[in-house]
């Protein structure tokens, strides 16, 4: 395939193609997929860890693992640029297995009152290998399942409804918790919350961002927190960037906070330092925004 060969050998030039978002071209798409497969084999994928704090104390309670691709020429590539590709070409299963293993390995090195939250895509939920990959990672690193939370999106729930109740029940039987990520942005109904017995709702950051300026968003945040409270579902507010947002969420009884105000995603070494930092109590002890 000459076109593919040309693209593959164009060196730096081919990355321009990715950047322009022109993956609809079949040849460049195949090169990208091939590079991504190699990235996994070459150890170019990294997990970064964003700290999670319980409210109102702002005590560190865990981390969300977020994957990045350390590309030799393009630098750090965010997941939004390669996870969708991985999902469409079948690589998500092996990338997901790697993420699971690496996140469990890291969590096993940290104190056992910290949990690790791992993103799982809709495609992974459809695959039969997810629970065996999880089980292997937990066993290999001698990590109790209770240390792990799996984040799934509403889209995953809608796309997989029939089969999903069984899959989630199986995962919860292993002992991991299930969080519904980006809550409010998808199309799932409230009935799904009861049907699938999620342990946590993560309120999407778009509602937090609009909280002060938009009455509708504020009403939704209040309603979700109240409903979650009545259903005994834990809550996390995503994307907290400002003190006033944090104060509002504390007043409303939100359980956990995540966002640039409190801590950006950190490389493994920096997350490690945060875990082991001797933190006196109070807001001054928080890591500064990088
Ligand atoms: P997500 O699961 O909702 O993760 C939160 C995203 O919001 C992260 O982006 C994080 O860096 C960003 N964020 C956190 N706090 C703030 C804030 O205060 N302000 C703003 N503007 N953003 C904030 P990131 O790391 O680029 O990840 C994007 C998405 O990629 C994730 O959204 C998740 O859906 C997906 N993803 C990341 N890692 C994985 C993975 O290992 N597997 C799968 N399947 N998906 C992943
Ligand atoms: Mg997430
Ligand atoms: Mg999220
Ligand atoms: Mg989100």
TrEMBL record:
Domain EAL: 29-279
Top-level taxon: Bacteria
Native organism: Aureimonas flava
Full-protein interval shown: 521 to 810 of 810
Protein name as catalogued: EAL domain-containing protein
């Amino acid at each position: 395939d000459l076109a593919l060969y040309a693209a593959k050998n164009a060196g730096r030039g081919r990355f321009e193609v990715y950047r322009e978002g022109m993956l609809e071209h079949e040849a460049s798409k195949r090169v990208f997929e091939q590079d991504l497969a190699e990235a996994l084999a070459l150890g170019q994928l990294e997990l970064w860890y964003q700290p999670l704090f319980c409210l109102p104390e702002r005590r560190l309670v865990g981390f969300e693992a977020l994957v990045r691709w350390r590309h030799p020429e393009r630098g750090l590539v965010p997941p939004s640029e390669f996870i969708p590709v991985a999902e469409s070409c079948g690589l998500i299963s092996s990338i997901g297995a790697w993420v699971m293993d690496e996140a469990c390995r890291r969590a096993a090195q940290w104190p056992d009152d910290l949990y690790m939250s791992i993103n799982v895509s809709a495609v992974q939920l459809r695959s039969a290998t997810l629970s065996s990959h999880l089980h292997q990672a937990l066993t290999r690193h001698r990590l109790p399942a209770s240390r792990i939370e799996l984040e799934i999106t509403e889209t995953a729930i809608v796309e997989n409804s029939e089969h999903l109740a069984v899959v989630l029940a199986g995962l919860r039987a292993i002992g991991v918790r299930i969080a519904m990520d980006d809550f409010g942005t998808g199309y799932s109904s409230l009935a799904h919350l009861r049907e699938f017995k999620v342990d946590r709702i993560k309120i999407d950051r778009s509602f937090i961002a609009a909280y002060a300026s938009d009455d509708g968003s504020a009403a939704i945040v209040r309603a979700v927190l109240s409903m979650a409270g009545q259903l005994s579902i834990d809550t996390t507010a995503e994307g907290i960037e400002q003190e006033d947002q944090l104060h509002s969420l504390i007043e409303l009884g939100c359980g956990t906070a995540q966002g640039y105000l409190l801590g950006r995603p950190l490389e493994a070494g920096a997350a490690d330092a945060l875990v082991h930092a001797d933190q006196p109590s109070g807001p001054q002890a928080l890591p500064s925004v990088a």
